[in-house]
Design goal:
- The protein is of the alpha+beta class and 60 residues long.
- It has one domain (10-58).
- It contains 1 helix and 2 strands.
- It has one helix at residues 40-58, and strands at 21-26, 30-33.
- Strands 1-2 form a two-stranded antiparallel ribbon.
- Strand 1 and strand 2 (30-33) form a beta hairpin.
- It is elongated, with a radius of gyration of 14 Å.
- The model has no long low-confidence stretch (mean pLDDT 84).
Length: 60
């Protein structure tokens, strides 16, 4: 759902890097890596796609 946004697209990418730290904490000190999952921008892109699809299905 992030289209052509890949982990290699620089600062504007929608996918977090394989070993790049995410914003998810595991315990008090450990931070989980993105493991190529959507980052904050990717999450927003996905939400926009879903909202557009729902609006289309509802005819709005």
């Amino acid at each position: 759902m992030t289209g052509d946004n890949t982990a290699c697209d620089g600062a504007e990418r929608g996918i977090g890097g394989l070993f790049e730290n995410s914003q998810v904490k595991f315990g008090e000190d450990a931070v989980l890596p993105w493991f190529l999952h959507p980052n904050t921008r990717g999450r927003d892109l996905q939400a926009q796609h879903v909202a557009t699809a729902v609006a289309g299905a509802l005819g709005t």
